[in-house]
Amino acid sequence: MSRRTVAVVDYGMGNLRSVSQAVMHVATDSGLDVIVTARPEEVRAAERVVLPGQGAMRDCMRELRDSGLQEAVLEAAASKPLMGVCVGMQMLLDHSEEQDTPGLGLIPGRVLRFRLEGRLQPDGSRYKVPQMGWNQVSQSAPGGVRHPVWGEVPDGAWFYFVHSYFTRPEQAIHTAGETEYGERFTCAVARDNIFATQFHPEKSAAHGLALYRNFLHWNP
Q1: Which parts form a coiled-coil structure per UniProt (predicted)?
Q2: Catalytic residue flag (residue 170)
């Protein structure tokens, strides 16, 4: 019987250790082996793919392309469950304001920078960019259907964010979760077999682990 794997894509720009350890932690009853790989053939052979990302989007896109992994990720996005995390989510859209960077174009929309200079939070403190901390996430249900990767995670659960840019999908149907930091913005996107989050599930305690577990069992 062939080996069933979930590939965490290693193109040199992700928080690989914490992401892979979190996925391994929840994979014990999934029948899947978790591999961290820089080999396109292993991404192609995997049953599921996790695309992490950390740092500047231009650097992430360059490293994904130069590593030879971009085509394998695009093939995975067309045919199997794929989960993007942080910049790995931003890369799925068409374009980022960060250094005028084209994305993978898998979900129509743009990545925008927070413009919060001089604005105060409700407690009187200034908004800081990057945003670092816990936010409450509202699970969107376009067409009245809540995304199955949320599973048992309650609406309004808290997740951990570190980012200066946020996504704005063109179509509301691709928004799977929203939160607020100066304004309301999309923090989870979904389309067909793709699900992605701006926040870090691996840094978000039990609810974050639940999302990875649900992704491993999701059959889109």
Answers
A1: none
A2: no
Kindly provide the b/e burial profile for residues 95-110, where b requires at least 16 CB atoms within 10 angstroms of the residue's own CB.
bbebeebebbebbebb
- Let me know if 202 is a catalytic residue: yes
Of 47, 174, 202, 207, the catalytic one is: 202
- The 10s digit of each residue's pLDDT in 150-185 is 999 999 999 999 999 999 999 999 999 999 999 999
Q: Which residues contact 107 (CB under 8 A, 6 or more apart)?
A: 92, 93, 94, 169, 174, 189, 191, 194
CB-based burial of residue 137 (10 Å sphere; 0-12 exposed, 13-18 middle, 19+ buried)? buried
86 part of the active site: yes
State the greatest distance between any 2 C-alpha atoms of the chain, in Å, as a whole number. 60
In the set 86, 163, 174, 187, the catalytic residue is: 86
